[in-house]
Amino acid sequence: MTVWEAIAVVIAGVFAGGINTVVGSGTLVTFPVLLAVGYPPVVANVSNSLGLVPGSLSGAWGYREELKGQKSRIARLLPASILGGIVGAILLVTLPDKAFTAIVPVLIVIALVLVVIQPWLNRKLAHRRSHNDGGVLLWIGVFAAGIYGGYFGAAQGVLVMGLMGVLVAEHLQRLNAVKNLLTAFVNLVAGVMFIFIADVAWLAVALLAAGSVVGGQIGAKIGRKLPPAVLRGVIVVVGVAAIVQLLMK
């Protein structure tokens, strides 16, 4: 990796840390960059998951005020995220590389659609939230989102926010705080597993980690003041670039 490539990875990490805290699609920025600097798809994905863990935890810490009073909700949903992340990580390293290359473009398309429709989805969710705490349906949904996150993860946060927005009567900023914590633990448990069962590009991990910690704090401070339309536009561009990169391999 050249110096300029290393700088690009750090910048991508900063951007991803901020996006993950506010929107939840940072992988669509970092994954294409890792592909562009020459890492194979599975190695790039594994290293990306590990590298973004500090940024996710940084974003969760930045939202610590919104987490107050939600211990019971977190205690109930966190096991679902952790178990899902473990299953997703196992799928990533047990399925053949060709399966990942074939599946991920589809996952990226789904993630891009979710990112694009998020404003419309949020408006709909504001009128459809129930008066309970999600029950078993939310637990299963968070578990499924954890599997997705452990396997690839782009727009995992959008999935979790969509589920909680439909099923939980709570302010969206407080739900976003829970989302940050749940997705952080999905990345963490998947990342720990990858250390022992997969090939990791440690330089990429270190560069992403440094950038994402800064980005997580920026995202937490700015919050909804960030122009979401611009963020979504950039995410779509880099997501399409990732699809092109994969299909050309």
Automatic annotation (TrEMBL):
It is a multi-pass membrane protein. It is found in: Cell membrane. The chain crosses the membrane at residues 7-36, 42-62, 74-93, 99-117, 137-164, 184-208, 229-248. The keyword Transcription does not apply. The keyword Ribonucleoprotein does not apply. Keywords: Cell membrane, Membrane, Transmembrane, Transmembrane helix, Transport. Belongs to the 4-toluene sulfonate uptake permease (TSUP) (TC 2.A.102) family. This is Probable membrane transporter protein. It comes from Lentzea roselyniae.
